[in-house]
Amino acid sequence: MSDTATIRGRRQWPLPKLADPDAPLLMVEDLAVRFRMPEGSVKAVDGVSFRLDDGEALGIAGESGCGKTTTALSLVRLLPANGRIKSGKVELFGIDLVPRTEQQLARYRWREISIVFQGAMNALNPVRRIRDAISEPIEVRLGQSRDASRKRAGELLELVGIPKQRGAAYPHELSGGMRQRAMIAMALACDPAIVIGDEPTTALDVMVQAQILRLLEQLRRDLGLSLILITHDLSVIAETCDRVMVMYAGRVAEEGPVRRVFTAPRHPYTQKLLSAFPNIHADRRTLDMIPGMPPDLRNPPPGCRFAPRCPMAMPVCTEVVPPEVRFADGVRVACHLYPTSDAPMVAATATATGAAAGAVTGATVAAHPEPGA
Amino acid sequence: MSAPAVPAGTGGAVVARPRRQPGLLRQILSRPDGLAGAVILLAFSVLALVPDILTGPLQTAITATGPRLAPPSGAFPLGTDELGRSMLNLTVHATRISMVIGLLATLVTVLIGAVLGIVSGYVGGRFDALVMRIADFFLVIPTFVLAIILTAIIRDVLGTGSRELFGIRLSLITIVVVIGITSWSSTARIIRSQTLSLKERAFVDRARVVGAGGGHIMRRHILPNVTNLIVANAVLTFAGAILTETTLSFVGLGDPFQPSWGQLLDAARTVGAPGLGAWWYFVPAGVGIVLVVFAFTLLGSALDAILNPKLQSRR
Amino acid sequence: MGLQYTLRRVATAIFTIVLIVLLNFLLFRAMPGSPERILLGRMPGVTPEILQQTRERWGLDRPLFPDQFVAYVASTAQGDLGFSYSARGRPVTDVLLQRLGPTLLLFGLGEVFAIVMGLALGAYSGWKRGGVVDYVGNGVSLVLYSTPYFLLGMGLLLVFATGLGWFPTFGMSTAGATYASLVDRLVDYGAHFVLPLATVALGLIGQYAILMRSSVIETLGEDYVTTARAMGFRDGRVLRHHALPNAMLPTVTLVAINLGYVVAGAITVEVVFNWPGLGTLTVDALSSRDYPVLQGVFLLLSVAVVFANLAADLIYGVLDPRVRT
C-alpha cells in the first residue's frame, strides 16, 4: 500500500503543507450530502465511504441519480447553491477538506484534484482557444509566467495526442474526441494527485471511446495518476479500473476489486446490474430488467434502499439499514444476506484488515456459499 | 406550443387540431403578472368604452368653462388646459382614441404579419426569400422616420375632412395603416419560424398525400396551430402600437379634434407645460401610457410563460 | 476573421442601402396625386402653368424608370439632396450637416453611458440574484421600458429644471450669452446637456440591464463556468474572464437591433429639450411639409443605422469566434 511519501517522491510540486506523510491518498468516511429543494431536503448521498490509494483507479458505477457524480464533486465541494455536505470526512493526504473554508479549499482544487467533465460542447469556454484554456490554470494557480504556461500547455497537448498547432483552435472547431482530449490535458495542467473523470466517454462513439480509454490508461501508467472514474457503463470500468464501487440511491452497495465484483457479485443490485448488461460472448438470452424505479430521495424507504426492488428481500431489509461487511477477497458489501451477527465479525471500515478479520471472514464464507455469477 | 391531437377514427382525412388550453383565461389570471395586467387593461377598457358617461362629451374650445391652465381644484380634479378644458375630460376621452387606434393598428399589423408569415413559411423558395429580405429591411431601417413621411404624404393626398371610420377620424386611420405597413416584420418572422417547424410535421405530410392543396393546409392545419403564437404576439404588438401612435402624435401628427394621449402630450409641450410647471397637463396622459404598455408587457410575459413552458426559466 | 463572414455582411449592407435609396425615390413619385402637387400644393398662387413648368424643370414628365431614377441616384451620389423649402433654398446637405453634430453628441454619448451602466447593473444583478438591487432594478427597468423617451424627458424637465431649478429648460446653450472663458462656455453647454443625456441614457439602460441580467444568469449555469470554479479560480476571475465575455454577446446584438428604435426616441427627446439636432429638424420639416429635408433625413438616418448595424456585426464577429466560420 503506497502512501504520501511515494507520491512526494514522484511529483514535481511539493505536497500541501499540512499533508500527513503516512496517510493514504484519499480517505472518505461517512460522507452525507443534502440538497435543499422547494419540496424538501433530498439526501442525495447518505453515508458513503471509500479509499483511494496512490496510482489506483477506482470506478464508481450506478444508475443515473444514484449519487455518484455528487459524491465525486463534493470532494472539492463543487456543489450547486442548494447543496451542502451535511457530515462526514474527506481526507486528502490526511487533511480533512470538509471543515475548510471556501478560500482554503480553493488551494486544493485542480492542484490536487482535477475533473474531466463530460466533454460535451459546453464544458469548454466557447470564446477561448484551447491552448489558453489549458495554460490559464498553470499561470493563475501555479504562478508561472505566461510563456512558461504556454509552453507547458503545448507539451500537455502533445501528451494527449493533439498536435500543437491545433492548440489555436476554438472548442467548436474540434471533434468530440479531440475536445475530450483537450479536457484531459486541462485536467493534468497542475499535475494533480487525483483526476476525477465524470462520464468522460459517454458522449463519444465507440471507436473514439476506446481511444480515450487507452489514453487514460497510458497516462495513468506514465504519470502514475490516481483516477476516479464515474460512469454507468460497466464495460468502461471493467477495462480501466482496479476497483469498483457500486452505488444505489446515495449509498454504497458493493465495493471491491473489479475482477471479484464483476465475476462474483454479492449484492443483489450488482448482480442485476451485471445481468442487465449485454454480453457479446454469452449465449443470447433475454435481458433481465430491474422492475420498479429508484426511490424518491426526499423520503427514502427505511432500511435498505434497494429492498422494494430486491428479489431477495427479507423482512429485516425494510427495517434495518444493512451494515457493511468486508470479505477476505477485499470486497465490501452492505446487504442483510451477509450479516455480521453470526460470527464476531468486525463491521467493515476501510482500514480493517488483519488476521482476526481474515479468520472470521473465512468462517463467514464457509457459512454462506458464494453467490453464482 | 400545444401538440396537435389526432382524433381517432378519422380515416383518411386527418385534421390536426390543437388541444384546447384548459381555461386559458383562468391560467392567465392565476399568475400575478397576468392578473395585474388584465386588471389594469380592464380598467382602461372601461374608460375607453364609455367616456361620455364618465366625464361627459369631449370638451372643445367652445364648451370649455374653466380657467386657463389652472392647477387641479375641486371643480377640475386634473386641472385645465390652455383653452380652459378639463384635463380629466380630455384624458379620459383620449383613452378611447389611443386604445382604439392601438387595437386597429394591432389588427392590421398582425393580419399582414401572420398572413405573410404563414404563406412565406409554407411556400418557401424564392417567394420566401423575397419576403424575408423585405422584412429584414423593415427591421433594420428606422421605421419611425419612414412612418412620419408616409403619414404626411398620405394625409396630403387624402386632404382634410372629418369622415370617420370606426369612430376615428380618417387622419388617424392613416396612422393605423402606416403602423401596419411599418411593423409587420417581426410578427411575420415569428410566425414564419413556427410555420417552418410545423411544415415538417407528419400531419402536414399526410394532408399533402391525401391531396389537400396549399391553401387548405395553411388554413385548416397550420393556422390553428399558430393561433397561440399569434395571440401572444398580438399582445406585445398592441403595446408597441400604442407607443408608436403616441410618438407619432407627439411630433405633430395627431388630430386636435380627436386627441389621443400622444396628442395631449404634444399640446402640453407646445404650450410649454413642463417649463411652466403645469404637471397636470401631461402627467395623467403619461401615466395612462405607461400603465397600459406595462400592463400589456405583463400580460405578454404571462402568456409566454403559459404557452411556452419549455422556454420558461424557473428562476 | 473569416473573409466570407465580412463580405456577406458588407454585401447585405450595400443591398439594404440600395433598397433605401429606391424607397426614398418611390415615396414621392409613386404616390397618387402627382408629386409636384403635393410638394407645391401648400404654396399660395400656384397656377396650372407653374405646375407644368415645375414638372418639366424637375424632369417629372420623363418616365419613372430609368430616367428619373438614374437622375436621382446620380445626384444623391454626388451629395446633392435637393433644396430645403423652409430654409429659403439652402441645400439640404448643408442643413443636415449643421444639425448632425448635436445629435451625434447626444445620441452617441447616451448610448455609451447606457451600455456601460446597463451592462454593469445587469451583471451585478445577475451575479447576486435576489438582492434588493436585483428586485428594485428589475422593477424600475420594466417601468422605464414602458415609458416613451419623451415622456421621461418631460418628467425630468419638470422635476429638475422647472421644479428644482438645477438645469436650464431648453436648448444647447443659453441664447445670446457671452462667455468669459472657455470653462464658462463648457459649463453652460454642459448644464444644458445633462437632462437630455440623462433621458436618452435612462431610456436605454433598462433594456440593456434586463438583457444582461438574464444573460449572466444563463451563462453562470453553463458547464464551462463549473469548470472554471473547479479550477479553483476566485469568483472575480470566473465572472470577468469566463462568464462576462459570453454573457455580453446577446447585448451586442440587442444594441444593433435597437438602433432603429432608438432613433425614434432620440428625435422626440430633442424636441422636448429643444436640442438643435436632426430631431428638431425633422419635426420642423414635418410641420412645414419640407419634403426635401424629410427625404434627406430619412436617407441619412437609414444609412447611418445600416452602417452601425454592420459595425456591430463585425464587432460581434470579433467577440464570438463561433460565427466566423
Describe the structure concisely for a colleague:
The complex is a heterotrimer of chains A (373), B (315) and C (325). Chain A is α/β, with parallel strands linked by helices. Chain A has helices at residues 4-10, 68-75, 102-106, 130-142, 146-159, 176-187, 206-223, 234-240, 258-263, 268-275, 355-367; strands at residues 26-37, 40-52, 57-61, 83-92, 95-96, 113-116, 194-198, 226-231, 243-248, 251-257, 324-326, 332-334.
Tags for this entry?
heterotrimer; A: 373 residues; alpha/beta; 8-stranded mixed beta sheet; 4-stranded antiparallel beta sheet; 12 strands; globular; disordered C terminus; B: 315 residues; mainly alpha; two-stranded antiparallel sheet; 12 helices; 70% helix; disordered N terminus
Give a written overview of the molecule:
The complex is a heterotrimer of chains A (373), B (315) and C (325). With 373 residues, chain A is of the alpha/beta class. Chain A contains eleven helices and twelve strands. Chain A has helices spanning 4-10, 68-75, 102-106, 130-142, 146-159, 176-187, 206-223, 234-240, 258-263, 268-275, 355-367; strands spanning 26-37, 40-52, 57-61, 83-92, 95-96, 113-116, 194-198, 226-231, 243-248, 251-257, 324-326, 332-334. Chain A has an eight-stranded mixed beta sheet with strand order 6-7-8-3-9-10-12-11, sandwiched between helices. In chain A, strands 2-1-4-5 form a four-stranded antiparallel beta sheet, with helices on one face. Chain A starts with a helix and ends in a 6-residue tail after the last helix. Chain B is mostly helical and 315 residues long. Chain B is built from twelve helices and four strands. In chain B, the strands form two sheets. A two-stranded antiparallel ribbon of chain B has the order 1-2. In chain B, a hairpin with a 2-residue loop joins strand 3 and strand 4 (168-169). In chain B, helix 5 packs across helix 7, helix 9 (214-253) packs parallel to helix 10 and helix 9 (214-253) packs antiparallel against helix 12. The model of chain B is unreliable at 1-16 and 311-315 (pLDDT under 50). Chain C has 325 residues and is mainly α. Chain C has twelve helices and no strands. Chain C has helices at residues 3-29, 35-40, 48-57, 64-77, 92-127, 132-145, 149-163, 182-220, 223-230, 235-273, 278-287, 291-319. Chains in contact: A-C, B-C.
